[in-house]
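In this section we walk through a basic example: taking a raw amino acid sequence and producing a predicted 3D structure, encoded as discrete structure tokens. The instruction is simple. Fold the sequence below.
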Amino acid sequence: MKNLLLVAAAVLVTAAVAVPLARRAVPPAPALAPVATIQEIMEGIVVPTSTAIFESVGTISTAAGTVDKAPSTPQDWEALERHAYLLVEAAGLLGIHPRRVERPSVEPEPGGESSPEVPPAEIEARIMKDPAAWQRHLDELRVVALRAQKAAHDRSVDGLFEVGGDMDLVCERCHQAYWYNAPEGVKIRR
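The resulting token sequence is shown next.
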């Protein structure tokens, strides 16, 4: 009998606590808001991952001859696949608005008209002027990064070589539109 009373008391206490907890509204999740700047995503994710893909295959010429460079172990291929996935995700992060190009506390580098790079405020203005064009550049990056992931997954040296060239073109088109300080219609090739 004593055990039955203890069980009944435990049930009543649990119910008394659980009902008010169940009635409490769960606060909505905070809206997805950018934290890192475009520059930080570029330097922290895009540059290292794309560099790993660019430098994964090629031919090195020396006085002793040529050496073909390519991933050689399962770990090498898996690392390239992870780099490609991160590049895909970086394209998505860069599309979250409104994202600053650079932290406001960063002093712009001197250079003015002769500087090869556009100031951050101008880059932001270019993005805001035509956000659909910005998104198209990000979509191109995502597509080429997915191709790099597939080439790594398929262990295709030729696929990586081809996608590396295409990735360079995708990157340069975006840089041409937003980063390089060139007069209208002038193309800069770095």
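Looking at the output, two observations stand out. Residues 33-59+69-104+116-190 form a domain with the Four Helix Bundle (Hemerythrin (Met), subunit A) fold (CATH 1.20.120.10). The mean pLDDT is 85. In the next section we compare this with other chains.
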